[in-house]
Amino acid sequence: MAHLFIFGCFLLLGAASSLAARIGYRGTVCDRSVGYEVPAEVTSDPELRSRANSLVAFWCTGAAILSLAPLVVIGSAALRDGGTSVPTWGLVAFAVHGLVVVTVVAYPFEKIKQLGAPAER
After folding, report:
1. Is CB count within 10 Å lower at the N or C end of the chain?
2. Domain ranges of the chain
3. Calpha distance 95→101 (Å, rounded)
4. Which helix (H) or strand (E) holds 26?
5. Using one digit for the tens of pLDDT, what is the confidence trace for 1-40?
6. pLDDT digits (tens, 9 = 90+) for 70-104
7. Which residue pairs, CB below 8 angstroms and at least 24 apart, start in 74-83?
């Protein structure tokens, strides 16, 4: 049962990351109705808007790839006889990997907030 739960979590994380990357590739990160809430400075400056789109596209694509990688291992374990269980170290490894993926997804959005902040002198 743990296999299916972990499989579902990483599948959901991969789908969400892919959708965020799609918005970045379409260039609509700064559009509030489709994209995300970004600072006004980023929305008004075409160079910063382009940078925001490329950040989201690049990092969310990487997160989608990272989140889909464990599906091979989990899927093969789930498709076996079903009698296998996930050891504690395996659960810890999947949890750490999930945290890495979430950190990779969150990075471009934090970077966009910094793009809109005035430079400190």
Report:
1. C
2. 2-116
3. 10
4. helix 2-26
5. 777 888 899 999 999 999 999 999 998 998 888 778 888 8
6. 888 887 777 776 667 778 888 899 999 999 999 99
7. 74/3, 74/6, 74/7, 74/10, 75/7, 77/3, 78/3, 78/4, 78/7
Tokens of 58: 């690049």
Two structure tokens written together for 107: 């990075």
Map tokens 């005035």 to a residue. Answer: 118
DSSP string of 28-96, one letter each residue: -TT-TTTS----HHHHH-HHHHHHHHHHHHHHHHHHHHHHHHHHHHHHHHHHS-S-----HHHHHHHHH
Cα distance between residue 97 and residue 71, in whole Å: 12
* Residues 24, 56 contacting (CB under 8 angstroms): yes
